[in-house]
Amino acid sequence: MKTVLVFKTSISKKRHIKTVQPFLNNLIGKNGFWNFDLQDCDNILRIETKIIKSDSICSVLNNHGFLCEELY
Predict the structure, then answer these.
(1) So what's the pLDDT on residue 72?
(2) CA distances from 42 to 10, 25, 66 (A)
(3) How would you label 14-23 residue by residue, b for 16+ Cβ within 10 Å and e otherwise?
(4) What is the secondary structure of 46-65 as a DSSP string?
(5) What is the per-residue pLDDT for 40?
(6) How far is the C-alpha of 50 from the C-alpha of 40, rounded, in Å?
(7) Which domains, from first to last, does the chain contain?
């Protein structure tokens, strides 16, 4: 069963997404899916996966200079 994780981020531009894209792809793998909603005021990152923990996602974004907070 896949889990859906939703995050508030500071990623606001497509070039920012390109910066973190390879790292998100690596974390989530082939069986997962992720996307950003830059039209949302919280710049939402939505992830569908079976194998990832939210701390890993926040760490990747934080290490690249972006804020990331899981929404419950």
Answers:
(1) 87
(2) 7, 21, 13
(3) eebbeebeeb
(4) EEEESS--HHHHHHHHHHTT
(5) 97
(6) 25
(7) 3-71 (3.30.70.100)
Task: Supply the pTM of this predicted model.
Answer: 0.92
Residue with the two structure tokens 């792809």: 25
* Rounded distance between C-alpha atoms, residue 64 and residue 50, angstroms: 24
For residue 63, give the amino acid letter: N
Rounded Cα–Cα distance for residues 37 and 9 (Å): 10
Q: Provide CB contacts within 8 A for 44, sequence distance 6+.
A: 6, 7, 8, 9, 36, 37, 71
Q: Is-contact 34 47, C-beta < 8 A?
A: yes
**pLDDT score for 36:** 98
If the chain, 72 residues long, is cut into consecutive pieces of 10 residues, what is the mean pLDDT of each piece? 92 97 91 94 95 87 96 91
